[in-house]
Amino acid sequence: AGAALAFGGSCTATEVGQVSIVVTALLAAALWCDRNQHQYASGVLVALALIKPTISVPFAVALLITGRQKAAVAATIYGAVATAVTWAVTGASPLHMLQQMAASASNYVGAGTVGVMDMLAAFGIVSSAQVALTPVIVGIPAAAVMVMSRHSLTLAFAVAAVWGRLWTYHKSYDDVMLVLLLLPLGVVAFSTRSRVALVSFAAIGALAWIPGRLLALPEIQMLQLLAWPAALIALIFTAREIRDVDSEQVRMQRLHA
C-alpha cells in the first residue's frame, strides 16, 4: 500500500478524483484472494475493477490465460448482471456505450502522457486509426508474454499492468497500476540477487516515486515508456529461477512483517 501511495501520480489521482487507486486496490485484493484459494471472490473483485476498463481489461484476460475458470465465471456473471442493471437504468445498450467510448476516445489521443499513440502520430497515422491500432500493437505481444507467464497469476498481473498502461490513453495518475509490476519485481530481485532485476527494480521505483510535477516532462514519460516493458522482460526471465513466484512473494512478506 505504501509503495502505491508513494507513486507520484497518486497525489494527482486524489486531487482530481480519479479512481485509479481504488481500481488498483481491487486488483491487488483479487490477487490476494487467489492466493488464499478464494477464486470466486477474486473474479468478482476483477469485475468490480472494470469500472475503469482502460486499466483492468487486461487483468480479466489474465484470469482466462492462467486458467482461473471459477474466477472468470464469477467475473462474467457479475459483469452480466451489472450490465443488465445499467442498461435498464440508462436505456443505453452496451454496444451503444462502446460506440460512444470509441467515438470520444480520439478526442483525447493527444491529451495523455507520451505513449504508443504518439509514436504512431509521428508516422502520420491519424487519431481514429491510432485508437484502433494501439490496442493491437500492444495487446498481441503482451498476450504472448502473458501466456509464457500463465503458471503464475502474480506474473500475469505484472504483464497486465504494463499492457493496461500502454494500450490506450492514460495520464500519470494511472501509473499507480504499475505497483503490480514493481512489487513482484522487487521480490524476484531481492530473492535471486540478479543484477538485471535489481537495476530494473531501482529504475521503475525511481520513475514511480519522483514528484508528480516531474511526471509532466516528456523526457521522463519517454523513459517510463522504455523502462516499463524492459523491466517486465527482466522480471519474466529472472523469475524462472524461482519455482513459485506467488509463494515466494508471500514468504518475503512474512519475513518483513
Amino-to-carboxy terminus distance: 13 Å
> For the report, how would you describe the main beta sheet?
none
In sequence order, what are the helices and strands, one letter per element? HHHHHHHHHHHHHH
Estimate percent helicity: over 70%
Question: Quaternary arrangement of the chains shown?
Answer: single chain
Structural class: mainly alpha
Number of helices: 14
Strand content range = under 5%
Shape by Cα distribution: globular
Rg from alpha-carbon coordinates: 18 Å
According to DSSP, the number of beta strands is 0
User: Which regions have little confidence, pLDDT < 50, spanning 5+ residues?
Assistant: none
- Name the average pLDDT: 82
Overall description:
The structure is a single chain. The chain is mainly α and 257 residues long. The chain is built from 14 helices and no strands. The chain has helices spanning 2-5, 8-16, 20-35, 39-49, 53-65, 69-90, 94-105, 116-122, 127-148, 153-166, 179-192, 195-208, 218-238, 245-255. Helix 9 (127-148) packs antiparallel against helix 10 (153-166) and helix 12 (195-208) packs antiparallel against helix 13 (218-238). The two termini are 13 Å apart.
